[in-house]
Specification:
Largest sheet: 5 strands, antiparallel
Number of strands: 12
Strand content: 5-15%
Number of helices: 21
Strand order of the largest sheet: 4-5-6-7-8
Structural class: alpha+beta
């Protein structure tokens, strides 16, 4: 013991001596970043105790399973273990409804439009002004009247600016749609909807830059094609499981403070990161050297039960996978510069920068500054029912909890009562049965051998009696709470194909009124998705494309993003009918003179979009329409000249 104390004292003395001589080095900044992430990770884990149990309970109810304690109590009482999957039905119905709204074929739940006063690049405005000046010069307008002429043409120039902005908005819309398709937005968003109807919060992430191998078919001689592979940087999107997302305990919204996402990587994934922009090759090498064979798991108490409920083996690949923690938040520029980040991305060392740090164990493998100019993270969240001043909302299974439990209790009691009352019960005096008689097995025409009563009793040795059936009362309880579940969730059964609609629901007009009233709950949820997920996510993609120098400049402009899931998509059929009616109303010579061919062309384009018709192949572009008008005018002029020549002869 004394030897250990002396060794400790000697080590302290050696450290003090080295520090005085300047040989002692403080904790490296890289380790400080890892220590900071580890500290935040421990705080987040400590804050997740009750929430993990809530999410597991939601997942059990979605799968139709009792908790371990509840199942033990049921088995202790005996009887049925039936579970009526009311929660699963509501979750599937809600997800289908949302999927029809947000991911219909050919439609986008968002739109891009110019700002009310679009601001185009100066060179384009100058080009319009020069065109007007050249036209005035050709007409012989004096220079002193040029300003007056430009003022007269100001409205026309403004209209041309608006038209150019609309063209740019349409090109940018197609570009964003192409990014979403290549990045798997639709598949991940569809999986995200499952989280939304199951857990207290659903997390969506994007865009994420990934280096992927892409296959292309190259045209060679004689019309043959050969495969060619190349690596490309793809903007991808991801649904993040709420089990793997850890916000700061003080956060209410995503961007209030730091957040941590837990990744599960393989050694191949880590090795592929070496050499990529922003990744630290030395940290990756050290992590692979230490965790390659034994793996690394940031275990939590819920991981085993979560894996079982999600249909995965909790023990599979536990020694080969490596967990990484991605920390997103703000850090001082000085710390990032000391770590070795490029000084060009950190102009002010005392400014707070939004960064993303990924660690494996005690090693930092990546540190990047988020390029988004709005300083917003790449995560977005939404809940089925938000709770004020809370990061986590209220899940649909939690709202249905009481109704689900009552329906389960009624169903178990009904199953038990039906079993009891399905046949007669028998009371047997065992002392009066003859030897070898078994009263537990009954069949028609069975004969029991009995003896005389020792007490002289005249009662029958075997009595049959029928238990009462309470099936109707129990069915009434079940149906009552099942209907109550429709009310508290706003998801009535008749909205998803059920024919059990009483009262006003028995007529077409009455059912339409009920459907309109029931959709108000889902409309409120759709509006929350628009504001909290769709609009900020598409805006972030737009900002990244505006910053990308490789994107065509004709796509860029003063544009704004607006989510339309809660507006246009819920009323798509009514909108299409109104467009058809408007086209029919304006199909007359008087209205055609007012709207002109250009206006008629725009009306036809909008109507064709709503009908999923290939617009570009059916409706001519503005340039093609102008060319046709010029050709028609030339033909009319030639015919007029020929007619005049004929009259003169």
């Amino acid at each position: 013991m004394q030897g250990l104390q002396q060794a400790a004292l000697q080590a302290q003395a050696d450290t003090a001596m080295k520090e005085m001589e300047g040989e002692y080095r403080p904790l490296p900044v890289m380790d400080r970043l890892a220590a900071h992430v580890k500290e935040c990770w421990q705080q987040a884990q400590h804050d997740r105790g009750s929430l993990n149990n809530r999410m597991l309970d939601c997942l059990r109810r979605r799968k139709g399973e009792y908790s371990t304690d509840k199942l033990q109590n049921i088995r202790a009482m005996g009887g049925s273990e039936i579970y009526m999957r009311l929660t699963a039905t509501k979750c599937i119905s809600a997800r289908s409804w949302l999927s029809d709204i947000f991911t219909p074929a050919g439609d986008k739940p968002w739109a891009i439009s110019p700002t009310p006063m679009p601001d185009l690049p100066p060179h384009f405005k100058q080009k319009l002004i020069m065109t007007a000046v050249q036209g005035a010069v050709q007409l012989g307008v004096p220079l002193e009247q040029m300003q007056e002429l430009l003022e007269k043409h100001e409205d026309r120039i403004r209209d041309e600016v608006a038209q150019e902005s609309e063209k740019r908005a349409e090109r940018m819309s197609q570009k964003i749609y192409d990014v979403l398709v290549e990045g798997g937005f639709r598949q991940e968003f569809d999986a995200w909807l499952d989280d939304l109807v199951t857990y207290p919060v659903a997390i969506f992430k994007g865009p994420i830059y990934r280096r992927r191998k892409r296959l292309k078919w190259v045209d060679v001689a004689n019309g043959d094609y050969q495969p060619s592979t190349a690596f490309e940087v793809i903007r991808e999107f991801k649904r993040v499981s709420p089990f793997d997302f850890f916000p700061s305990p003080s956060a209410v919204n995503i961007n209030d403070d730091w957040v941590i996402e837990r990744h599960r990587l393989t050694a191949t994934d880590l090795s592929a990161m070496r050499g990529a922009a922003g990744y630290h090759g030395k940290g990756i090498t050290l992590a692979l050297n230490e965790y390659r064979l034994g793996g690394l798991r940031e275990w939590m108490s819920v991981d085993g039960e979560r894996s079982r409920l999600e249909g995965r083996d909790a023990t599979a690949n536990k020694s080969t996978t490596i967990d990484a923690l991605e920390w997103s938040g703000k850090l001082q520029g000085k710390i990032l510069l000391e770590w070795g980040m490029d000084a060009r991305s950190i102009p002010d060392p005392y400014e707070e920068y939004l960064v993303s740090i990924m660690t494996v164990g005690n090693y930092v493998i990546r540190a990047l500054v988020n390029p988004d100019p709005t300083d917003r993270m790449d995560y977005f969240k939404c809940s089925w029912r938000s709770v004020p001043n809370s990061f986590w909302g209220e899940a649909l299974p939690e709202i249905l909890k009481d109704c689900q439990d009552m329906c389960n209790a009624a169903a178990r009691a009904l199953a038990n009562n039906m079993g009891y009352s399905s046949g007669p019960m028998v009371a047997v005096s065992q002392d009066r049965l003859a030897k070898g008689q078994d009263a537990t097995k009954l069949h028609p025409w069975k004969v029991f051998g009995v003896t005389e009563s020792r007490t002289g009793s005249s009662a029958a040795p075997i009595n049959f009696f029928q238990p009462n059936s309470n099936a109707q009362e129990l069915l009434g309880i079940y149906e009552r709470f099942s209907r109550y579940a429709d009310d508290i969730t706003g998801l009535p059964a008749y909205a998803f194909g059920s024919d059990q609609a009483a009262g006003a629901g028995r007529t077409a007009s009455g059912l339409s009124m009920l459907m309109s009233a029931a959709s108000k709950t889902i409309k409120n949820l759709v509006r929350s998705i628009d504001i909290q997920v769709i609009e900020p996510c598409i805006t972030k993609v737009f900002n990244h494309l505006m910053l990308d120098p490789t994107v065509d400049k004709t796509c860029k402009g003063d544009l704004q993003i607006k989510a339309i899931g809660s507006e246009a998509l819920l009323h798509k059929e009514a909108k299409n009918q109104m467009q058809q009616q408007f086209l029919a109303m304006t199909n007359n010579p008087v209205d055609l003179q007012i709207v002109g061919l250009e206006g008629r062309r725009e009306l036809l384009r909008e109507a064709a979009k709503g009908l999923d018709i290939p617009v570009d192949r059916v409706i001519p572009s503005q340039e093609e329409l102008e060319l046709r008008q010029m050709e028609q005018a030339q033909q009319e002029m030639m015919m007029a000249e020929q007619e005049q020549a004929a009259n003169a002869q």
